[in-house]
Amino acid sequence: MNDMKTPDMNTPDKADVAKTDVAKADVTKASVTKDTVATGTGTGTGTGTGTGAADAAGEAQPVFGVRNLWKVFGSKADTVPGNAEYAGLSQAELRTRTGCTAAVRDVSFDVHKGEVFVVMGLSGSGKSTLVRCLTRLIEPTSGTLEIDGEDVLAMDKNRLRELRRHRAAMVFQHFGLLPHRSVLDNVAYGLEIQGMPKAERRERAAAMVAKVGLEGLEGRRPGQLSGGQQQRVGLARALAADPEVLLFDEPFSALDPLIRRDMQEEVIRLHSEEGRTMVFITHDLSEALRVGDRIALMRDGEIVQLGTPEEIVGAPADDYVRDFVRDVPREQVLTVRTAMKPGACDASEHPDALAPTAVVSDAIESVARSGRAACVVEDGRCLGQVDQSALLRVVAGLDREEVAA
Amino acid sequence: MSAVVTPNPPSTQTEVAKEPARAGARSALSHPVARRLLPLAVAVVVLAPLAAVLWGSGSWPHALTVDIKTPLDDAYNWTVRNRDTNPVFLYGLLHLSNWADSSVSSVTDLLENLGWFPVITITVLLSWRIGGLRDRRGLKLAGVTFAAFAVCGLLGMWQSTMETLALMLVAVVVSAVVGALLGLGAGLSDRFERILRPFLDTMQIMPAFAYLLPLVVVFDIGVPSALIATIIYAAPPMARLTALGLRGADPGVMEAAASLGTSPVQRLLTARLPLARKEILLGLNQTIMMSLSMVTIASVIGAGGLGEEVFQALSTVDVGKALAAGIPIVLLAVWFDRLTSVAGDRLGAGAAPAGLRWLHGWRAWTVSAVSAAALSVAGWMMFIADWPDTWNVDIASPVNNAVDWFTSHMASGVPVLGGTRTWADNFTLWILDPLRTGLTDSPWWLLVLLAAVLAFLAGGWSACLTAALAMAGIGVFGVWNHSLDTLSQAIAGVVVTLVLGFAIGIVAARVSWIERALRPVLDTMQTLPQFIYLIPVVAMFNVGRSAAVAAAVLYALPAVVRITTQGLRQVDGATMEAARSMGASTFQQIRQVQLPLARPALMLALNQGVVLVLAMVIVGGLVGSGALGYDVVYGLEKSQLGTGMTAGIAIVLLGLVLDRTTQRTGKRSAAR
Amino acid sequence: MKMNRKNVLRVTTAAAVALGITGLSACGAAKTNSGGSGSGSGTVTLSVQSWVGAEADVAVAKYVLEHDLNTKVKTTQLDEGVSFDALNTGKADAIMEDWGGSPKKVSLYVDDKKTVVKGGDLGVTGHIGWFVPKYLADKHPDITNYKNLNKYASLFKTAESGSKGQLLEGSPSYTTNDKALIKNLKLNYKTVFAGSEAAQITQLKEDYKAKKPFLTYWYTPQWLNSQMDLVEVKLPPYTKGCDSDAQKVACGYAQTPLQKYLSADFVKKNKKAATFLKNFKWTNDDQNEVAAMIAAQKMSPDKAAEKWVKAHQDVVKAWLPK
Questions:
Q1: Touching check for B306 and chain A: CB below 8 Å?
Q2: Keyword set for this entry (chain C) (predicted)?
């Protein structure tokens, strides 16, 4: 998996990563769209557009493997999961029948190494509960949960603590910083918990503080920082333990729009630099599309659709998802792979060749400039070509029926 | 019960349906109350005639009383005879008592041997450090400290101040530790909290004097009793606030800590406890204030120090000297209050270390400690340990003259109004007497019922049960009439307190210079030992119940004024602005916006007023209130445990009744 | 979360219990006798009652002990009844002026437990009675006999006494039979307790200043008597034993020779000081002189004692142990 990704990371595009969103979308997508086949069995499974990479993904071990996970709140919580009687009920009906609330209902998915897996949904959809179940901050009611093949639910207290200390670190919506500690000591907190000597952990924390761009503020208290700065501290704290997975719980929802964008780019940058696996919770569709390699869309505790941003936007699984993505500028999400007419190119030379992962808006620019159809080339092989009408169909949304069909 | 019937809305005609709906909404106001009262009403209809037939309808039936005086007196006599030989005392309590004695006397000796100059130096530098060495607040705090201690010396109270300080320090340390441990338990365990809560609630309404008598029985008169009474009195706020702080720890931060893989102990030490620092510090502040007031009261059982000075001055009817002993108490309170609040502010702000390094952290402590030691030694060599008498300033005679002049001019001979003594007589004749007669003449079951209903309306079933049982308990213990006498005084006191308190509070909330001027006066009134009011009150209102009510009002007024002012001030600015924009007059603003919105605060003021008035019942006994207050004083002074304890219990029961009938429980007010 | 909390609690409780057990096992039986003579080498603790006469006794005794016997003296403010408890436990060493208000305690400690011993007469004779101001007695000469009191009941009416005349009582710690007396002498009066001597004196002073009529429980020697001219109301004469049944008392109060009491332990340990205290004896006038200095002239007790002792060296010399 990793070696598959590395070449992508080294593409020329990589140099100006994060300069513009579009460029970024390009790169990350380039690195992961290959393994977009949804191995999950969510209610609405995305229509995979994956190519050969799919098989590779299937073989590799997922970082998180989640199967039939339930979290039910209430006194009779145990009776709900797997009970056919309650299966079709809405949340409200379930509550009147049993007095229980099912925050997570029969959810299954895999998170692959190196990807940014986004869980998106409106408030109350169960996404925050879901991410907490991953490290058992909230104890799941039933189901199976594995990290690197190890059963999380079977872990004893010490093993679980090890998991939280070294393998999965979390960034919170409201930061969760200790107000009485300086920035440096907050970042070092996780290391202190692990019992690392003071000098060493401070050195490491200082490096993390620098990494998230907070040099010079080490001595401040959280109360003296802006929201964005506080979240950088939260990020640095999570990074300090060098975890295998980063879990983000709506990390930027409490921030101003401009700062939010900065922080998103920060995450994208970190991801491209380190390739760390991330699970990212958000209620903001544009954020999901921007950072996510794959998106699981949740509603009432269930996954409605799981797929790449392109799949979600291009092929909504049902009316709810369609409604959700209606206002998304499609040309910035859909790639030329979707828009192109498959087939050979007219010429053997491809002066204005586009990568299949390029988004439509880039293709429009290119096509408009040259005034003729452009070829879509991958690994020196021509996959097809896009012309003005094909691109316009995407913008107009005329491709939708086709894909859906 | 007729309101329970609601018409069925017609199902077909929608226009008509509106009207019954509105009627339904209107009746819904009385509806839930009526329905909730229904079971109570049924019980009454069944039980009241039964009770009346069985035991009559006058004062509490004799058949239903239990004599607890005799067993209490027996217990007392047994204790006195066996205190020296019984193993429980010999192996347990006596250790405690000896420990109390030796710890207090060692601290006293330390302070006295140190001498006044080093003590002042050390406290000033310590305060400065706590306030921050390069902070303006630190300097200000150091100034306050210096002034406070210097005045204590100048008033000729240095030694007494040190005695009080020593007793207080020991009491504060122990109560803080005990309170923090209890708070820790209550903060971490729900079950422990459920067990502790009723105790803390009862402690809060327990008048300080009520602790003294049983302690005297066990520990005899003297420092141990005083110390232990102080600890018992001062520990609850620490426990309460520690628990509150621990429970209120930001769940987000706690979750973040958990997500990093903290063990429970790590989570407690690195996150939950530090997060609760502000509350814990506030608890410490409360503990200090309460122990200071108790240390003064405990002079009745031989605590010594400033309280004894006050007491002794009173025996020669020397208000001036009593005041000279009271002022150091106020100053100590001011100092401790400032110290803890500045420390709290600094904890919260967490100033970024900047500037000179040696003015921060442990270096600053070292700097403070070393310079304090150096200065102390220097001062110690130059001055003698005792405060030089020649520096003393006599405030007694001018104060006495002023008080004399004031009381004699106010007491009688004020044109038209007649003077305070006439008012007092009229107050007794036209308010206290009818109230007392009304209460004592009411059938006993009616009063129990009344307490139950009022408590039910205020706090639901559990409050109702508590109030009814407490009221019945008063009768069962055979102090029905005395309790009703005291109750009549308490009710009158509360009403006067509230009328005055609300009036002053409303004015102070609107006119900020009045509030500013009032603040120091209120602070002083709250911290002065209650005894100081004795003489002026008697001089102005004659010995009797009016004087007792006046003393209670004086004591309870500051808190009521403060809560009222704060409550009114905190009324949402936007709402007030909206009212003003609609052209509401000042009166309309107060009546229609501020008062309704400040209702929770006003209810709290009522509750506090009740608790504080009741706390003064025993002091009232010292100015002729008779009834329970006199009984407790009698019990204390004559070592009559039976009478004193029974009266003390009755006061606590009265307190429970009044508290439950005036306190909206947390849950219900939170639901609003 | 909850599980974790519980664990912490368990650990804390265990630690607390362990600590408690070690604490308990470390100590055996405690020794009594803290404070008082036990605490320091020869420090004498004198119990002071709330009235000024007692304060005068103690002030003079303290002055002499400190200046002539080189003994450190501590004073502690204790009421009459509890003073005996303090002597019993050794928290105080001596009571200088007992009015006989706690016969039960005297029999318990002096006769039964023998932890307290008699210290002899103070020399001062105390007397309790009912008093009216002189200006009132001048106006109604026959008011000074209890038989005529009912005639004047309306003069003494107050808000507290209602339709009856008010007999002002003092602190609850004082010895009084007045309730029974009123009943048995069929007087139309009611006792109103001031609750403390301070309140009573304040009331008397204010009334005296305004020349109002009042009837009060009062006693001699009392420093206030030098500022106020009071006349005693004659009650049926005291005969021995007439006050033995508290419910049936119908006689006035006895002339009480005030007593000193000492802690037995103290007498054993500090013979010199104990002998001095036993010898201490002075007159009503002497005590009034010092008391007036303290109360009326607002002198500090130490200063007042100094002044008196310097003027009465011969009296003091007789007290000192040979």
A1: no
A2: Signal
Rounded Cα gap, residues B348 and B345, in angstroms: 5
Q: Does residue A232 lie in a domain region? A: no
Give me the DSSP letters along A250-318.
Answer: STTTTS-HHHHHHHHHHHHHHHHHH--EEEEEES-HHHHHHH-SEEEEEETTEEEEEE-HHHHHHS-SS
Q: Could you say which of A308, A328, A348 is where a domain stops?
A: A328
Indicate the residue of B101, B424, B624 with minimum beta-carbon distance to C199: B624
User: Who's near C26: CB < 8 A, 6+ residues apart?
Assistant: none
Q: Does the distance separating the beta carbons of B633 and C195 come in below 8 Å?
A: yes
CB count, 10 Å around CB of B592? 13
Q: Of the candidates B44, B76, B119, which has an alpha carbon nearest to the alpha carbon of residue B638?
A: B76
The domain in which residue A369 lies consists of 336-404
Whether residues A248 and A104 fall in one domain: yes
> For B624, which of C81, C105, C193 is closest by C-beta distance?
C193
> What DSSP assignment string belongs to A84-118?
HHHHT--HHHHHHHHS-EEEEEEEEEEE-TT-EEE
Position A26 in a domain: yes
Q: Is residue A22 part of a domain?
A: yes
Same domain, A262 and A374: no
ipTM over 0.85: no
- Alpha helix segments (H runs only) across B302-392: 306-315, 319-349, 361-382
Q: Please tell me what DSSP assigns to residue C128.
A: E
Q: CB of A177 within 8 Å of any CB in chain B? A: yes
With contacts defined as CB-CB under 8 Å, which chain C residues touch B301?
Answer: 82
CA distances from B48 to B36, B372, B443, B510 (A): 19, 72, 10, 49
In a domain, A190, yes or no: no
pLDDT tens-digit map of A140-154 = 998 999 998 889 999
Tell me if B537 sits within 8 A of B554, measured CB to CB.
yes
Please give the single-letter amino acid code of residue A309: P
- Please give the helix or strand (H or E) that residue B161 lies within, else none: helix B158-188
**Does residue A259 share a domain with residue A312?**
yes
pLDDT reading at B226 higher than 90:
no
Consecutive H or E run containing B439: helix B433-441
Strand-pair partners of A384: A342, A376
How many angstroms separate the CA of residue C25 from the nearest CA in chain B? Answer: 10
Token pair, residue B588, equals 């309309």
CATH number of the domain encompassing residue A41 = 3.40.50.300
Residues of chain B within CATH 1.10.3720.10 domain(s) are: 112-393, 411-443+481-654
Band (B30; pLDDT cuts 50, 70, 90): low
Chain B neighbors of C52, CB-CB under 8 A? 315-316
Rounded distance, CA A378 to CA C187, Å?
Answer: 123
* Residue A137 and residue A67 share a domain: yes
B411-443+481-654: CATH number? 1.10.3720.10
- CATH class of residue range B112-393: mainly alpha
Q: Quick one: A66 and A108 in the same domain? A: yes
Instruction: Say how far apart CA C319 and CA A210 lie, in whole Å.
Output: 88
Last residue in a domain, options A328, A353, A369: A328
**Residue numbers in A near B271 (CB within 8 A):** 178
User: B170-184, B465-479, C96-110, C250-264: which has the minimum mean pLDDT?
Assistant: C96-110
Ordered structural domains, chain C, with CATH: 36-124+257-319 (3.40.190.10), 126-255 (3.40.190.100)
DSSP character at residue C211: T
Burial degree of A327 (CB within 10 A; 0-12, 13-18, 19+): exposed
When divided into structural domains, chain A yields a total of 2
Q: What is the per-residue burial (b if ≥16 Cβ within 10 Å, else e) of B628-653?
A: bbbbbbbbbbbbbbbbbbbbbbbbbb
- Taking an 8 Å cut-off on Cβ atoms, the answer to whether B624 and C192 are in contact is yes
Range from B21-25, B118-122, C257-261 that averages highest in pLDDT:
C257-261
Same domain, A340 and A321: no
